[in-house]
From TrEMBL:
It comes from the Bacteria. One of its GO terms (biological process) is cell division. It is found in: Cell membrane. Residues 2-227 form the ABC transporter domain. It is a peripheral membrane protein. NCBIfam families: FtsE (TIGR02673). SMART domains: AAA (SM00382). Homodimer. Forms a membrane-associated complex with FtsX. This is Cell division ATP-binding protein FtsE. GO terms for molecular function: ATP binding; ATP hydrolysis activity; transmembrane transporter activity. The keyword Cell cycle applies. Part of the ABC transporter FtsEX involved in cellular division. Keywords: ATP-binding, Cell cycle, Cell division, Cell membrane, Membrane, Nucleotide-binding.
């Protein structure tokens, strides 16, 4: 479903963020993308959603060259890829339900569909009773669950989670990762988890792609990751 084909990304003449990186992600797969800060994880995800373009090589999503998409085609492309970030990115003046609904409103979904989909998404992430709360009333783990619900409302083919546990304690971090794994198993949604948390990756025992200084160091189908 996703192909990174000999990707190199340079910033100016001296900074090489990625160097000749190639690997594939199959439909419905769970993959941990790991490496220390600056390894190139976030750059790969930005290339996938079309926020950046490769200097060399191609990123293919469902056989489409992402860099070749026209500006008006990018919103539709990005709806196929639900994004979850370390800093949650919730609207503080809106309730939990309104935050999730907003992702549908901005693409023109109508009220009836929103009223059906939002409660389903909140139930899936374990927040059915939190719909009318505001972000300030939530724990960090609950905020990340709202972000995951928001990522699910367009029924994406893939969820990318860029350091989603970076602001969470170890117990809550594991709960969030288990939720992503459950979504992967129940809905068949591919998940790309970018992290540098060795303990989480080793506990998952799922495929690991290891980056180091912008290069692909290892692709391990058995889920082993050692710093």
């Amino acid at each position: 479903m996703i192909i990174f084909d000999r990707i190199t990304k340079r910033y100016g003449a001296d900074i090489v963020a990625l160097a000749d990186v190639s690997f594939k992600i199959e439909r419905g797969e769970f993959l941990s993308l790991v490496g220390k800060s600056g390894a190139g994880k976030s750059t790969l995800l930005k290339l996938l959603i079309g926020e950046e373009h490769p200097t060399e090589g191609k990123v293919l999503f469902r056989e489409t060259d992402v860099a070749a998409l026209k500006p008006h085609e990018l919103p539709s492309h990005r709806r196929r890829i639900g994004a979850v970030f370390q800093d949650f990115r919730l609207l503080t003046a809106r309730t939990v339900a309104e935050n999730v609904a907003f992702a549908m409103e901005v693409v023109g979904k109508r009220g009836r569909e929103i009223r059906e989909v939002v409660p389903q998404a909140l139930k899936l992430v374990g927040l059915a009773g939190h719909a009318q709360r505001f972000p300030r009333e939530l724990s960090g783990g609950e905020k990340q669950r709202v972000a995951i619900a928001r990522a699910l409302v367009h029924d994406p083919d893939c969820i990318i989670a860029d350091e989603p546990t970076g602001n969470l304690d170890p117990v809550t971090s594991w709960e969030i990762v288990r939720l992503l794994a459950r979504i992967n198993e129940l809905a068949g949604t591919a998940v790309v988890l970018a992290t540098h948390d060795k303990d989480i990756v080793n506990a998952l025992r799922k495929r690991v792609v290891v980056l180091e200084s912008g290069r692909l160091l290892r692709d391990d189908s058995e889920g082993r990751y050692a710093l």
